[in-house]
C-alpha cells in the first residue's frame, strides 16, 4: 500500500470527514495492532494526496482512552504518509485564551495512565528522542496559515493530556495552570510519541472549546459545550487544515525523519 498518500490528517471530535468530492477513495487497512478507528479516506487537497482518518471513528465510537492509537499511526505510515496534521478539541488553562482560539502547541505533558504508548515493547530497547514532540516545519506552516486566515491563534504552548473520559476537577485544572501549561486535552498522547517512533512529522492544531474547570466559576466544562463550539468552527478548521497541508514542503528537512537513525529496530517498518 506504500505511496498511496503523502500527508495524513487525523480528525478530532466532530471532525469526521475531510473531502467533499466524490472521487475520494475509502481504503481498509490491516495492521499488526488491529484495525484503525475507521476506514482511511484518500483524496486530494490541491496537488497533495491526503489520507484522512477520524480519530474517534465516524459517529464518535471510541472514547479517548479506547482509541486504537497504534493501529491508526501504523495504518497511515503503511499508506506512505510521512507528515501528519492533527486537529483536536482542547480546554484552555489561560483566561486570555477563550473558546474559538486555535493553539499550535510546541510542548506536551503526559498525564495518561493506561494507554499503550510504544511500538517497541519487545525485541530490545528503542529510546526515541522526544524533547520537542512536534514537527518544527509543520508547526511553522500551521502558525502561518492560522495568522493568514485572521484566526485568533497562539504560537506555542504546552498541551497536557489527561486520561479521560472524565473532565478535570477544579483542583487538577488549577494545578495544571499553576505549572504554566496552556491547554488540556485527552487525545494528544500517545498519538504524538507513536508518530515519532515511526519517524513521522506530527503537528497538533488545537481548537479551544472551553475554559477548563479551574479557570472560571460555574459547573465546569460539559460534553455538549465542547461539541457545540467545535461544530461552530468545523468549516474554519477544515479550511485551516487544508491550507496547512498545501503549505507543507514536499521534502522533509526537519529532524523528525531521522528520529530512528542509528537505532536497531526489532522489526521492519511499513
Unreliable residue stretches: none
Number of helices: 6
Estimate the mean pLDDT confidence.
Answer: 93
Secondary-structure element order, N to C: EEEEHEEEHEEHEHEHH
Strand content: 15-25%
Number of strand segments: 11
Q: Describe the biggest sheet?
A: 11 strands, mixed
Shape annotation:
globular
Helix content: 10-25%
How far apart are the termini? 9 Å
Content-based structural category: alpha/beta
Radius of gyration: 17 Å
How does this model look, in words?
- A hairpin with a 2-residue loop joins strand 3 (40-45) and strand 4 (48-54).
- The protein has helices spanning 69-78, 136-148, 170-178, 188-197, 223-232, 234-247; strands at 7-11, 25-27, 40-45, 48-54, 83-92, 102-104, 107-111, 153-155, 158-162, 183-185, 201-211.
- The protein starts with 6 loop residues before the first strand and ends in a 23-residue tail after the last helix.
- Helices cover 24% and strands 23% of the residues.
- The model has no long low-confidence stretch (mean pLDDT 93).
- It is globular, with a radius of gyration of 17 Å.
- Strands 1, 2, 3, 4, 5, 6, 7, 8, 9, 10 and 11 form an eleven-stranded mixed β-sheet that branches.
- Helix 2 packs across helix 6 (234-247).
- The protein is of the alpha/beta class and 270 residues long.
Core attributes:
about 25% helix, about 270 residues, alpha/beta, globular, single chain
Provide a brief overview of the structure.
The chain is of the alpha/beta class. It is built from 6 helices and 11 strands. The longest helix has 14 residues, at 234-247.
Amino acid at each position: 500500500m506504500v505511496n498511496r498518500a503523502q500527508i495524513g490528517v487525523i480528525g478530532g471530535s466532530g471532525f469526521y470527514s475531510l473531502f467533499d468530492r466524490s472521487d475520494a477513495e475509502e481504503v481498509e487497512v490491516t495492521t499488526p495492532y488491529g484495525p484503525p478507528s475507521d476506514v482511511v479516506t484518500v483524496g486530494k487537497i490541491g496537488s497533495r494526496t491526503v489520507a484522512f482518518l477520524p480519530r474517534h471513528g465516524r459517529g464518535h465510537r471510541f472514547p479517548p482512552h479506547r482509541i486504537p492509537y497504534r493501529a491508526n499511526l501504523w495504518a497511515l505510515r503503511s499508506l506512505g504518509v510521512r507528515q501528519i496534521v492533527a486537529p483536536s478539541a482542547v480546554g484552555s488553562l489561560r483566561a486570555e485564551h477563550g473558546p474559538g482560539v486555535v493553539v499550535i502547541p510546541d510542548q506536551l505533558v503526559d498525564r495518561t495512565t493506561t494507554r499503550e504508548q510504544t511500538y517497541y515493547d519487545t525485541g530490545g530497547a528503542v529510546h526515541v528522542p522526544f524533547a520537542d514532540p512536534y514537527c518544527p516545519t509543520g508547526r511553522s506552516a500551521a502558525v502561518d496559515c492560522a495568522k493568514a486566515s485572521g484566526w485568533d491563534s497562539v504560537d506555542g504552548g504546552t498541551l497536557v493530556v489527561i486520561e479521560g473520559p472524565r473532565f478535570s476537577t477544579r483542583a487538577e485544572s488549577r494545578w495544571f495552570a499553576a505549572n504554566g501549561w496552556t491547554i488540556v486535552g485527552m487525545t494528544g498522547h500517545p498519538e504524538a510519541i507513536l508518530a515519532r517512533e515511526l519517524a513521522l512529522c506530527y503537528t497538533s492544531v488545537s481548537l479551544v472549546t472551553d475554559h477548563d474547570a479551574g479557570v472560571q466559576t460555574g459547573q465546569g466544562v460539559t460534553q455538549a459545550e465542547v461539541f457545540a463550539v467545535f461544530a461552530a468552527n468545523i468549516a474554519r478548521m477544515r479550511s485551516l487544515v487544508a491550507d496547512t497541508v498545501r503549505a507543507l514542503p514536499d521534502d522533509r528537512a526537519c529532524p523528525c525523519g531521522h528520529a530512528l537513525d542509528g537505532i536497531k529496530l526489532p522489526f521492519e517498518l511499513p
